[in-house]
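Sharing a chain and its predicted structure for anyone who wants a worked example. Both blocks are below, sequence first, tokens second.
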Amino acid sequence: MKELLVLSPVDLDNNKPTKILDKKLNMLQSFNSGFKFNFEIVEYETIHDAMKTVFFNQSCFMVLGELTAHGNDLYSSNKAGPRRKKKGRPTIQDRDGTEIVLDLDDHILKGFDPLKPVPAIKKWLAKRKIKCNVTWQITSGQKLKDRHARIRLYFETNKKLSLLDRKAWSQSPE
């Protein structure tokens, strides 16, 4: 089994979850990284299983890193902490992994309908010869009357890559 780090805010009234949208793509809630979060490690076989868990628990989000020693201490004692990589006492650090998260912001996908995005996503993937299972998510910037896609795609590679390599790959124009 693989592991994925998932964070959820301690106080939903004051620590809003990361830009949750309703079915009409109106923003319901939004995160602030300065708040305290509970750390959870989700075991999974495929990224698609893990993302179903993340999507089901609307007030959490995944992190493509792992806990530091301090983060593990908080996790082991069921204590919350900030989402930090560099300042203060870091709780999260980079790690190698197979998960790829590809943000398509303001891409023009032929035939894209934000309420029925699957056909346009499939065409976009086929055009780029991406032949794997992909889990998708509409992001908070999507508007109903705009045909520019704002979506996030989740899939896995066959081998582990550094976080830097995964970020470089996901930021490439193609």
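Comments welcome. The first helix runs from residue 47 to 56.
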